[in-house]
Specification:
This protein has 410 residues and is α/β, with parallel strands linked by helices. It folds into two domains: 215 residues, Rossmann fold (3-Layer(aba) Sandwich); 108 residues, NAD(P)-binding Rossmann-like Domain (Rossmann fold, 3-Layer(aba) Sandwich). Helix content is 33%, strand content 24%. The strands form three sheets. A seven-stranded mixed β-sheet has the order 6-5-4-7-8-11-10, sandwiched between helices. A hairpin with a 5-residue loop joins strand 17 and strand 18. The longest helix has 27 residues. 47% of the residues are buried.
């Protein structure tokens, strides 16, 4: 469905600032090669009134989330991140045996698990049937449903001290309904805490491959502040966190809470950067084109030398980057991924097969293109034997890195 109005303020005078062409759904991996997956426009529109950035096309939620292959607990980085978040929030809000926490898009329960182990009462809400089943089997009470649906929140029988949404508040076309439902289940003094990929970091670091259809929205503090103020709510505190190439943790409550100076500091930083000006986004689009040229030049040079190249990591961002740069199985025949649910699958419309690390090693690659770039140090550290054997690692960030045993430091 084409989205002609701003999801945040309703303005219909929005402008396209980035276009990555047509792309398949990033996490809908295929079972076999040579299958054709439906593609959709992947364009970002900008609202000059409230500074919101959103995709121009909304794919039906059921196509993306009813069955989901991304498992948050796969990487130690995320297990540690959510464990630390659970400890921090428990201390900040004095959570204990009388407390109740609801997590939206709870995946396999990676955040709720450490809270439950501390004695806190928890409930996850997860639209993917396979993940909610996994969480329930692991002892994390989880409702299979969408939080914007009244039938889902009707199953939550207690008022919550906290409602959290980690890396999912950009994943819906119905953000107002979600927010309204959050404050139906929250205690009046409760807080809504979200983590979202930070658009400032995306623009500053060139991580355009964070754009894919699951992310309907791309948040700055400027746009989030306008969104919540329009709903009679306020942001009271913001913290920067390292996940997904740079994210922000945002504390939202009813009006009347003390507002921390961090809110105005983030807004000023964004204005200084130019996030309230359309030219900033158009310049970013030009940078993407330059990065495509540089990456393809490196890969073409390696191929012309007879080098065998494989990829590492098949997150959603890999589908975006590979499709935007037209990198198919003529360049990469295989991509390694540690998630067993992805192994044996094929990246849509590119015919690139996803394999285990063991199988990847057996291919004896000369070069590894790291597609899960936000974990590139963890990936290299877990594969130092490849580095020591002379394999080069290519990291396609804004300034494309070529890493070998001579120039790498842990």
């Amino acid at each position: 469905m084409i989205k002609n109005e701003c999801r945040s303020c309703g303005n219909t005078d929005i402008e396209t600032v980035i276009s990555l062409g047509e792309s398949p759904l990033a996490n809908n991996l295929l079972d076999t090669k040579n299958l054709k997956e439906q593609s959709y426009p992947l364009k970002m529109n900008y609202c000059p009134i409230c500074y919101n950035c959103q995709l121009s096309y909304s794919v039906p939620r059921e196509r993306m989330f009813n069955k989901y292959l991304y498992v948050s607990s796969t990487t130690k980085t995320f297990r540690d991140h959510f464990s630390n978040a659970a400890i921090l929030l428990s201390e900040q809000f004095g959570l204990g045996e009388e407390s109740f926490v609801v997590d939206i898009g709870s995946n396999d329960g990676v955040f709720l698990k450490p809270l439950k182990e501390m004695g806190v009462n928890v409930c996850g809400v997860e639209p993917a049937g396979n993940l909610s089943e996994m969480a329930n089997k692991n002892g994390i009470p989880t409702i299979n449903g969408y939080f914007e649906d009244d039938s889902t929140i009707g199953q939550i029988k207690h008022k919550a001290d906290l409602v959290t949404a980690f890396n999912v508040f950009a994943h819906s076309d119905k953000l107002k309904q979600i927010t309204e439902n959050v404050f139906k289940v929250l205690k009046p003094s409760g807080h809504f805490i979200i983590e979202v990929q930070y658009l400032y970091d995306t623009l500053n670091d060139g991580t355009f491959d964070n754009m894919y259809h699951e992310h309907y929205n791309y948040w700055s503090v400027l746009s989030l502040n306008n969104f919540f103020l329009n709903l009679g709510l306020q942001i009271s505190y913001i913290d920067h966190v390292d996940t997904h190439g740079g994210s922000i943790r945002v504390y939202v409550g009813n009006q009347g809470h003390l507002v921390h100076p961090s809110v105005s500091e983030f807004i000023q930083k964004e204005r200084d950067f130019g996030m309230d000006k359309i030219e900033t986004y158009l310049n970013f689009s030009n940078m993407i084109n330059e990065r495509k040229t540089n990456t393809l030049q490196i890969l073409d040079d390696l191929k012309s030398q007879g080098k065998k190249i494989i990829g590492y990591g098949a997150p959603a961002k890999a589908t975006t980057l590979l499709n935007a740069f037209n990198i198919n199985d003529n360049i990469l025949k295989y991509v390694i991924d540690d998630n067993v649910m992805k192994q044996g699958k094929v990246i849509p419309n590119l015919n690139i097969k996803i394999i285990s690390k063991e199988e990847g090693y057996s291919k004896k690659p000369d070069c590894v293109l790291i597609l899960a770039w936000n974990f590139y140090r963890e990936i290299i550290n877990n594969n130092l034997e490849l580095l020591e054997s002379g394999v080069e690692f290519i990291v396609p960030t804004q300034n494309v890195l070529v890493i070998n045993k001579e120039n790498y430091s842990e």
